[in-house]
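Ticket closed. Logging final result for Glutaredoxin.
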Amino acid sequence: MSSVTVYARVGCPYCDMAKALLRRKNVAFEEIDIGREPARRPEMIERAGGRTTVPQIFIDGRHIGGCDDLHALDAAGGLDPLLAA
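Final structure:
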């Protein structure tokens, strides 16, 4: 199974929707709460190519993007193969 990392913040509805999709697919993921760990925010921005919004999602180190990007990838049939790798 792939390694999934989600940078998120408590109270963010987009974060909740992205995590819900991953949970529906029974995917274990590491959640990094940048609200509780603000020192990790620069790390997220660097890894995400300058994006500053949450969530930012990575699968096996590959930047997927935010919630809309994750759902679009799933709708296009590209998420399951990444998760199965």
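The CA atoms of residues 12 and 26 lie 21 Å apart. No further action required.
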